[in-house]
Amino acid sequence: MLAKISLALKKYKVLKCLFLSWCVLLAHQSAAKVVIGIVGKTKNDTFYQQAFKGCLHFGREHPEIECKYDGPKDFQDIHSQTMAINRLIDQGIDGLIVATTDSQHLVTHSLVALKSKNIPVITFDSDLLEKHQQYRLTYVGSNNFDFGVALGEQVKKLTNKANNTICIQSGHHTTPNLNKRIAGVRYALSEQAKTQLTGKKWLARR
Q: What is the pLDDT of residues 64-77, one digit of tens each?
């Protein structure tokens, strides 16, 4: 466990350095202020608000960096997310950091335009699907399948019953990171399948 935590911290430091280097590179490409847009799955989620605060903290150390925050207000909505991104594009941004709700919709309605304008994109928390990853520079976040496997292993420890029924409650049904976590849970419980539980001991309902 300590080894896994240590590896996670190393990965975090590497990704943090990558992000900071990206911001500094953008800043040196222009004498003007560099504007970074941050869009989460929802605007009022404290997780995404912390990401914005992190950008603001970096901006205090590097005055040439300006951070703008937007997103769907109360719940995960694929249309509201791309509308928020397009507002930022209209306002003028030099880079985008986004947590994916729906990969196909995000690419079609926002990221194609960003790519055509040579505006770089980093995904965090929730990555694009593999077929769309040419539209972002990199992904910063967890290995969500492994995350799900860990959850499934914890569930196993909570019961000794011969037969169990579990409910997997998640967010938007197209969100890549959440679907990978669900696949990880199913894999851990069935010990054989990523898409469904075929073992006799577990029955999953979503």
A: 899 999 999 888 99
Euclidean distance between CA atoms 152 and 118, whole angstroms: 41
Q: Let me know: does 89 contact 114? Beta carbons within 8 Å.
A: yes
pTM of the model: 0.78
pLDDT tens-digit series, residues 7-37: 444 444 444 545 555 555 555 555 578 999 9
Amino acid residing at 156: K
Q: How many CB atoms lie within 10 A of CB 60?
A: 8
**Amino acid identity, position 30:** S
Is 75 within 8 Å of 44 (Cβ atoms)?
no
Quote the tokens at residue 204. Answer: 């999953």
